[in-house]
Amino acid sequence: MQLETAKSIPQFSLPSSGQRTHASAPKQPSVSAADVVNLTSQLAIMIRSGVDIATALESAARQCRRPALAGVLHEIHDAVIGGQAFSDALRKYPKIFSSAYVATVAAGEASGHMADVLEQLSELERSRLRLIRSIRGLLVYPLLLLAVSLGVIGVLLVFVLPRFAELFSDYDMTLPWITQALIAVSQEIRGRWWLWIPMAGLAGAAVVAIPTTEVGRRVWDRLLLHAPMIGDVTRTLLIGRSCRLIGMLMDSGVPLLDSVRLARQSSKNSLYQALFANIEDAVVNGRSFASALSASTVVPPAASEMLTTAEQSGKLAEVSRMVGAYFEDEGETRARQVVSAMEPMITVVMGAVVATVVLAVMLPVFDLSSFAGKG
């Protein structure tokens, strides 16, 4: 294992969970992840071509078309010119450059392989962005289909059905039970819209706010990891991202223990944060890295087995990166399969609901036609 690797890395320190910002940190502008990826690639190319980091920062700031990012680059450049380490200058902007990013850069400074490290960072972040965009693209059609279907149902209930209800009330005929039920729902919504609209808004706000609480976040994270269909995809994507990050950090010279801590800080899932806390505890107390993985229910068994073998063979960093790349690709493939399965399910369910509403309208119409023919 590489527990003792890079013990002498200068300027390398991990912020504690409560130390997210520096007391004298400058104002944090809004910079997109894509801009950070492009900046990292640009710096890697310039440094590999023989340009020093200060000149590369000055050139990047001059060419940057994003005023917010250009201002940050000018400030980082001034700090580096003033004798500050590049990683220390980055650490002042935790909302732009994550702890893992800064720690990897610090390791690159210490090892003298800054260009290689920046290329790895760029590849890692570009892969993450590509995965996010891919999943968002997959979800567009199902969500659009769901929204259109709900809109059609709302129009039928609120505007179409009440007009037919007025027509049916003029005739002495018994309406089907499904029509009576939907008319009652329509009348309730139209009669007390001032109650139901705010309640719907509050329900939506509660759904958004619940994951921000400690208990709600744990429930939501557990649901993502254990729900049918979705849980398998989430576990695969999370272990892929985490393994790839740990492998990249260790390859850059960051010790295993610090790599695990950075992976915990980078994870947004509370169950995975707890997993990395257990791994950290195992490593500190002399147990194997893989022992905590094997005992976890949120890690795919195949990943646990491969990492156990890698630790025993002394190739944990290399295999972690390979495992991460494999499971990220596998997670994206499974996400496509889940979305492909969701589309017909949503179509059938929403079609059945719309058909029920239409049937509730048309059945009395048929009865009314028969009634008029007999009259």
Short key terms for the protein model shown above:
375 residues, Receptor-associated Protein, 15 helices
Q: What is the architecture of the domain at 33-127 at the second tier of CATH?
A: Up-down Bundle
End-to-end Cα distance: 92 Å
- Structure classification: mainly alpha
CATH class of the domain at 33-127: Mainly Alpha
Low-pLDDT runs of 5+ residues are: 1-13, 15-24
CATH superfamily of the domain at 33-127: Type II secretion system (T2SS), domain F
Alpha-carbon Rg, integer: 28 Å
Structural shape: elongated
Written overview of the protein:
By secondary structure, the protein is an all-alpha fold. It has a domain at 33-127: Type II secretion system (T2SS), domain F (Receptor-associated Protein). The protein is 77% helix and 0% strand. The termini are far apart.
